[in-house]
């Protein structure tokens, strides 16, 4: 099943949800934060703004340890929205368990037609590894999509970051053959944006008229520009994107306000 959204000349709007890290049990915590509770707050925020987006894009690490129960609860939470949803796996996910829960329907689409745009989803996960890599089959798939629709502006989504973001410890985990991805991006003029998760923070850069960006996590946030593991006190959030019919793009970060979520800011890694 493929997703197609077309509102004529009206822009298409996307919410990017990422890195929810839901545990097998609802009371699971990550670095002191109850990830179920933080996602629930984010979902409530999105319900209040549901008229402002047409698609929900989940860019991985939905589960903390790949438990099927985590995917069932994530799917249940997203069922509050009538908008289509599409999921990517992250390095903490179990792709097989995810597919067992949601099947091979629209949520697992590899491409989405968004008005004049196309959204292309790439798998950057390497089994057993924290960092990312794009297999040759993924790069070939990307070329096929871009060459097949040269008139369509393209948004590329993946889990891992394809460029350094200024956090030394996280930059060791970026896509290790990102140069091959960026070469394709530079080769095809119809690529307008690349978005990703994994880094638990808002990152944005525009280079050669291409927008490169990450989204904050729906749970704990990593401190920007930190050489070593460090948490940030910023509240969870999402990235909102508006895709204009002419290929232009606007984007904002939506964060929670007025809520308290426990987090251990002294943590020095996931083992804490």
Describe the structure.
The longest helix is centred in the N-terminal third of the chain and has 14 residues, at 35-48. The protein has one domain (3-255): Purple Acid Phosphatase, chain A, domain 2 (4-Layer Sandwich). It has six helices and 16 strands. It has 272 residues and is of the alpha/beta class. The protein starts with a strand and ends in a 17-residue tail after the last strand. Helix 2 (68-78) crosses helix 3.
Features:
single chain; 272 residues; alpha/beta; Purple Acid Phosphatase, chain A, domain 2; 7-stranded mixed sheet; 16 strands
Assembly of the depicted chains: single chain
The helix/strand order is: EEEEHEHEHEEHEHHEEEEEEE
> Main beta sheet, described?
7 strands, mixed
Helix-residue proportion: 10-25%
Rg calc: 17 Å
**Alpha plus pi helix count:** 6
User: β content, as a range?
Assistant: 25-35%
CATH class: Alpha Beta
Secondary-structure map:
Blueprint: E1 3-5, E2 12-17, E3 29-30, E4 33-34, H1 35-48, E5 55-59, H2 68-78, E6 85-88, H3 95-102, E7 111-114, E8 117-121, H4 136-148, E9 154-158, H5 168-171, H6 178-187, E10 191-196, E11 204-207, E12 210-214, E13 221-222, E14 231-232, E15 237-243, E16 249-255
Parallel strand pairs: 1-7, 2-5, 5-6, 8-9, 9-10, 10-12
Antiparallel strand pairs: 2-15, 3-4, 7-8, 11-12, 13-14, 15-16
Helix pairs in contact: 2-3
Structure, briefly:
Helices cover 22% and strands 25% of the residues. It is α/β, with parallel strands linked by helices.
């Amino acid at each position: 099943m493929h997703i197609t959204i077309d509102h004529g000349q009206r822009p298409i709007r996307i919410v990017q949800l990422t890195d929810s890290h839901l545990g097998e049990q609802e009371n699971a915590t990550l670095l002191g934060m109850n990830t179920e509770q933080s996602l629930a707050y984010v979902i409530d925020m999105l319900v209040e703004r549901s008229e402002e987006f047409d698609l929900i894009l989940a860019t991985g690490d939905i589960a903390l340890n790949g438990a099927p129960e985590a995917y069932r609860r994530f799917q249940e939470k997203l069922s509050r929205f009538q908008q289509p949803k599409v999921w990517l796996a992250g390095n903490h996910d179990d792709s097989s368990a995810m597919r067992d829960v949601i099947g091979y329907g629209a949520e697992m689409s590899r491409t989405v037609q968004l008005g004049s745009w196309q959204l292309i989803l790439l798998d950057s996960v390497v089994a057993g590894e924290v960092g990312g890599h794009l297999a040759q089959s993924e790069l070939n798939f990307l070329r096929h999509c871009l060459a097949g629709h040269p008139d369509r502006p393209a948004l590329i989504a993946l889990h891992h970051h394809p460029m350094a973001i200024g956090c030394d410890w996280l930059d060791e985990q970026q896509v290790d053959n990102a140069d091959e991805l960026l070469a394709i991006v530079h080769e095809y003029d119809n690529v307008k944006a690349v978005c990703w998760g994994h880094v638990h923070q808002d990152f944005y850069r525009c280079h050669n008229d291409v927008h490169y960006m990450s989204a904050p996590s729906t749970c704990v946030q990593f401190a920007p520009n930190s050489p070593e593991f460090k948490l940030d006190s910023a509240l969870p959030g999402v990235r909102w994107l508006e895709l204009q019919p002419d290929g232009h793009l606007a984007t904002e970060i939506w964060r929670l306000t007025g809520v308290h979520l426990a987090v251990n800011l002294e943590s020095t890694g996931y083992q804490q």
